[in-house]
Design a protein that fits this description.
Beta-Lactamase; about 55% helix; Alpha-Beta Plaits; six-stranded antiparallel beta sheet; Rev_trsase/Diguanyl_cyclase; alpha+beta
Length: about 675
């Protein structure tokens, strides 16, 4: 065909080299020449550096430098797989924070976590590297690798990240990085698409179902990303509510202290003097450092005067309290200093006599930024940190800076901590108006990575792996089906194949029922035969064990042990004849099953076997003759319980071992139906 001819393939190869070279130049230019905001981010610099290495390996591959390409890409593949494992595994398994400690001097003030590429680009780089290392063979799943890369790159540039803030996770999406990865993908695909022609049917059979699975995986991944973002939002809201409670608690503590002072002044017969006022307000000034001013405003004949005032060091333009506040309520007002964005809160409480007569007001001015000082405490070093901003109508009141690299994720929480107008001794209701404060939380990359669920990343990786397995399975099945159809057209080869398989099946069937060393029936065959003889009662079993067989293996070697096993099996088979079925039960043990044989007959057969082995020219390393111990048991009533019967023979065998070996012992029930099975076996 024209698209597989030599000139066309050569043109494809030249186009692949051009696309790869363009990707290489663009990556180098982005790292060295272009000084854009996106290219200067640590994660994007790492992605471009890794893409540059992939481009070098792919360039050598297009130039038929297979060895050089593998030499470059295998270490890179190991590095990428390690990064993927660190992204999916729990923090305790592979902590990039701990791995970055030796490189702290190189990455300061960032960490390896800040330099790690985002998940999508990391997966694309891994797939491109695996595609080259797999020699771009369709039989190894490279077409699906390319399709997965294409879908991931398209998804990476969707507007999803505008309404899902945490999906970007630690980086700003770069069109330059996507262009470099897209050029590498196009160059790799163009260079090999003509070579997939011979397997196009198998490729189509495996590609489309596995691609559908990839699409479903990406959809599930995005759904889990949304769920993970919701969990982060919940954590941020919870942290914000905790800060709100601390701020509200601080404000309420001050308000309650001020109310105690209000009660004291209402019970005092005269207004306080200056010295008395300083003495009364000293505990408030000491306990509440954010108290700016505290005034006692006396109302006399409709006139207002301030006989007692406590002034804490403050700006000269501190807002003054209202001249005559309404007598029936507590008033909270807000003012902003003109020279600096310092916010002050003024709190006023009425002073009344027991009869209800208004004497004056107790007015306090608080510094909101100082009061919010204890809202947030930085976590221990190395655990990640938050950037916390407290604002009022977008005007900054207080900011706690972070230690690490900021992540592209924030959460805003409105604070209902300071009521603007609330009657005394009444709880807040839904109609209570609060000071419109807003708290903005922004974690650094370490904290966000630690808090974020690994489930989306694990789901993505498992889905891609399962889709790859599906492709390989379908592709292999189709290839095998094609081969089977070709074999079906050759009758001669098919007949030879059938005969060969039949012979192998017979061998396997024989091996399944016989011991390969001695040629005797194995345990499976013995049990199956005993079940066919379950009506031929009484049925006796003889369990044979070679005495001190371990000494033969230890002193003479396992080869001599195998020879002894074969000799004993052959000798026992000749001695037994047609009186029963002999098989190897396991290790150095043999089992004899005698249908319609009573205990006395089985005992005679066992004695005959013992003498035959005793008289055989078989000896240990020290010249002592080889002996065997035998346990005999019999069952004469239905139903046949082969397992119990063998256990009884084993009990008798242990008795023979215990009483000196080279003997035959019979299993006999004791009085009142109890048996030797009720006692623990002897130790050989």
């Amino acid at each position: 065909m024209w698209y597989t001819s030599t000139p066309v393939v050569r043109h494809y190869r030249l186009l692949s080299q051009g696309l790869t070279l363009l990707a290489l130049v663009l990556a180098v230019a982005s790292l060295t020449v272009l000084d854009t905001r996106v290219a200067s981010l640590p994660a994007n610099q790492t992605t471009l550096a890794l893409a540059l290495i992939v481009a070098i390996g792919q360039w050598r591959w297009t130039r038929k430098g297979v060895f050089t390409s593998a030499l470059v890409l295998w270490p890179l593949c190991l590095c990428l797989v390690t990064l993927l494992f660190g992204t999916c595994a729990p923090e305790d398994w592979l902590s990039l924070e701990r791995l970055s400690e030796p490189f702290r001097w190189l990455t300061t003030p960032s960490t390896l976590l800040d330099w790690r590429p985002p998940l999508v680009e990391l997966v694309v780089l891994t797939l491109l590297t695996l595609g080259i290392l797999a020699r771009t063979r369709s039989s190894l799943g490279v077409p699906l690798l390319h399709m997965s890369c294409l879908l991931l790159l398209l998804l990476d540039q969707t507007p999803l990240h505008h309404w899902l803030p945490s999906a970007a996770l630690l980086h700003a999406h770069s069109l330059t990085v996507t262009a470099v990865l897209g050029l590498l993908l196009a160059g790799q695909w163009v260079g090999v698409v003509s070579g997939w022609r011979p397997t196009r049917d198998s490729l189509r059979r495996g590609l489309w179902p596995s691609t559908l699975l990839v699409v479903m995986t990406l959809a599930l991944w995005q759904y889990l990303e949304i769920q993970a973002d919701g969990e982060l939002q919940y954590l941020g809201q919870r942290e914000g509510r905790a800060m709100e409670e601390r701020l509200a608690s601080e404000f309420n503590d001050f308000r309650h202290s001020l109310q105690h002072l209000q009660v004291f002044l209402e019970q005092s017969p005269l207004p306080p003097s200056t010295e008395r006022w300083q003495h009364l307000t000293r505990p408030l000034r000491d306990h509440f450092p954010y108290l700016a001013t505290l005034r006692y405003v006396e109302v006399t004949g409709g006139n207002v005067r301030s006989p007692a005032t406590t002034v804490v060091p403050r700006p000269t333009d501190m807002p003054q309290p209202a001249a005559v506040p309404p007598p029936e309520a507590q008033i909270t007002t807000l003012a902003i200093d003109a020279p600096a964005p310092t916010m002050k809160i003024t709190l006023s409480l009425p002073i009344r006599r027991p009869g209800g007569k208004l004497l004056g007001h107790l007015a306090a001015t608080l510094s909101l930024s100082a009061m919010a000082e204890n809202m947030y405490t930085h976590p221990p070093s190395g655990a990640g940190s938050l950037q916390v901003r407290l604002t009022y109508h977008n005007r900054l009141i207080k900011e706690w800076p972070m230690e690490g690299h900021p992540a592209s994720w924030t959460v805003s929480v409105p604070l209902d901590a300071i009521p603007l107008h609330r009657p005394d001794n009444k709880a807040a209701t839904v109609d209570t108006a609060y000071l419109p404060l807003e708290l903005t939380l922004r974690p650094d990359t370490r904290l966000l990575t630690r808090l974020r669920s690994r489930l989306p990343a694990v789901t993505l990786m498992l889905g891609l792996l399962f889709s790859q397995f599906l492709y390989l399975t379908l592709f292999s099945q189709h290839q095998m089906a094609s081969q089977h159809r070709a074999l079906a057209r050759s009758n001669g080869d098919l007949r030879r194949e059938v005969r060969t398989r039949h012979r192998l099946q017979q061998q396997l069937s024989w091996l399944a029922d016989h011991d390969e060393l001695t040629g005797l029936p194995n345990r499976r065959h013995l049990q199956a035969t005993a079940q066919t003889w379950r009506a031929r009662l009484p049925l006796s079993v003889i369990l044979v064990d070679i005495d001190h067989f371990k000494r033969i293996n230890d002193c003479l070697g396992h080869a001599e042990g195998d020879r002894v096993l074969k000799a004993v099996g052959r000798l026992a088979q000749e001695t037994l004849g047609d009186d029963g079925l002999l098989g190897r039960y396991g290790g150095e043990e043999f089992l004899v099953i005698i249908p319609e044989g009573r205990l006395a007959e089985a005992s005679a057969v066992a004695e005959r076997l013992r003498r035959a082995v005793r008289q055989a020219p078989l000896a240990h390393h020290d010249g002592t003759p080889l002996t065997i111990s035998l346990g005999v048991a019999c069952q004469d009533q239905a139903p046949l319980d082969l397992a119990r019967l063998i256990q009884q023979a084993d009990q008798a065998l242990y008795t023979a071992k215990h009483q000196g070996r080279d003997r035959v012992e019979l299993f006999v029930d004791t009085v009142d139906g109890a048996s030797d099975l009720d006692t623990p076996p002897f130790t050989a």
